[in-house]
Amino acid sequence: MIRRAHVIGLACCLALALPVGVGAQGREPLNLELGDPARKARTLALGVDQIHDTHKGVDLSTDEVAAALADAAIVLVGEAHTSVESHRVQAQVIAALQRAGRKVTIGLEMFPYDAPTAPFDRWLRGSLDEAALLRESGWYDYWGYPWGYYRDIFLLAKQYRLPIRGVNAPRAVVAMVGRRGLAGIGGMERGQLAPTIDTTNEEHKRLFVAYVGGDSAGHGAGMPPEVLQRMVEAQSTWDATMAYHAVELSKESPDPRAVVVVLVGSGHVAYNLGIARQARAYTDKRVATVMPIATQPGTPEPVRASVGDIVWGVPTETYPRFPTLGLSFRSSGEQPTTVLMVSPGSPAEAMGFKAGDIVLTLDGQPIRKDVEVRALLDRKQWGDALTGTVTRGAETLTLTGRLRRR
Question: Which of 24, 32, 133, 315 is deepest in the core (most CB within 10 A)?
Answer without folding.
Answer: 32
